[in-house]
Amino acid sequence: MRILSFKTGHDPAACLLEDGKIIAAVEEERFNRVKHAADFFPEKSIRYCLSTRNLTLDEVDYIVFARAKNFSTFLKVGWYFLMRPPRNFTELRYMFALVKVQVQGLFSALRGLASYKRIFEVMGVRARKVYSFDHHLCHAASAYYGSGFDEAAILCMDGKGEATSISMWYGKGGGLKLLKRYGIFNSLGYLYGSITDFLGFRINDGEYKVMGLAPYGKAVYEMDDVISVGDRGVRINTRYSLYPFSIRSLEARFPNINREYQEDTPPQPNTDIAATLQDRLEKATLYYVRELLLTAKSYKLKAESLCLAGGVALNVKMNKAIWESGLVKNMWIQPAAGDMGNVFGAAWLLYYQKTGRHPEPLRHLYLGPEYSQAEIEKSLARSGLNYKKSDDIADEVVNLLSQKKIVAWFQGRMEFGPRALGSRSVLADPRTAQMKDIINAKVKFREPFRPFCPSFLEGHGEEFLEHYMPSPYMVMSFSVKPEWREKITAVCHVDNTVRPQEVFHATNPLYAKMIEYFFQKTGVPVVLNTSLNVKGEPIVNTPEEAVLFFKKTDVDYLAIGPYLAKK
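-> structure tokens emitted (567 positions)
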């Protein structure tokens, strides 16, 4: 059985499922080079997924749209505002703005312009082959089926999906049960995004920067008027959360903000605002986790394993707080936790509904395009670069890293999701403190306070990380043990935490081999890994883009396929 899944809106993407296994997945931004590619139809992503099996749309058994249909969304939003009418002018303005968007979507659907019909009906696909699912149901399915757990509690948190911002589920034996949901005015994602924009970053893009900014400050602000967490629940003041109408209230609440981040030490009071916001997010999430587990137990369900999805689940500091709370024995976070990961959820859910069988859990994220040696050499030959073919590219790269060189690494199938995991990466020696500043200034052209991540060889996590749990996707933060902080100083954040990737020979043999060589040479089983892109651009996809990146940055070498290029 073959299922093609796709989504539109923010982070459009597509994936192909074959007999319960994800065969291919990619985001549209990797093709059109527009970060997040908001509101682009994922045509190139769909074509790529089909090409991996030389399929036409007619040869796909089912097509699934990872969001509710326009009319269903319109009803859900309308019902939400009927049940929870606006209580202040900010909520009223937001309601009118959102309803306007929903009405426009509804009229588009009535005119036959809904995205899934516009493409598939024109191409002759039978309407009965096309399915769609609720946004938060897709989030829940992406976490539950991806985890491999047979039984688990599931918490989904994002800005909003249809009229929901937080949903609680339970998965058992392949089925999913909704336990509870919270609406738009309770959105932690909206609040975090609104303050992200207020602090000078882009909403729906720069939230991870606020998370990185927080350890430079202290949670000293009294913010109960913005968000309060207590025994009676979480209360969010929508005057501060409903973007863009919230910005004026935030400016009055937190005056004298400095939005310049080019100095080594980020500005006050920004750092303390970020720290307080992060602290409140963690406390609010712990409240919701406890509520979820208690609700599950009230249904006489086990509550030992927890799955997370939704964009808020990309907050690694929050995930660390959940894990270290000891509330659950097992925890799995969907690595593509944002909206792009819903293509997994929709495909897995439809597969389960059609077959009654569990789909195969997510094993890795190397699901994107791969380029042949001939294609790579053709790009290099046209580039004018000085390059050679290497007998052992991993060994040569390790020698360069140990000489403090920075190497762009382009190998194998591109990663799906927001993280570079050793296919499209920039690599460096983590033992040199100055390396962080060098890469930020000369390669990434980004704010100097932002940290870099370590990739480490399988089996070494407990050696240098506290409270370690398996972390192959960079979706969890851990404290570094004191004796290791100087050894890997370039990847330690100011609070001595890291967001690591454990690299396995079984899923990325060349990358694991390279790190193993580095370990043999230096005694450190860790390399610095950051994404192969510059600020504001998507991760590199093609050999031509890798060459262009190499030319316009101060990276020393490019390891692309079996070839090594230098300037």
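The chain has four domains: 2-69+114-132, 71-105, 147-334, 373-566.
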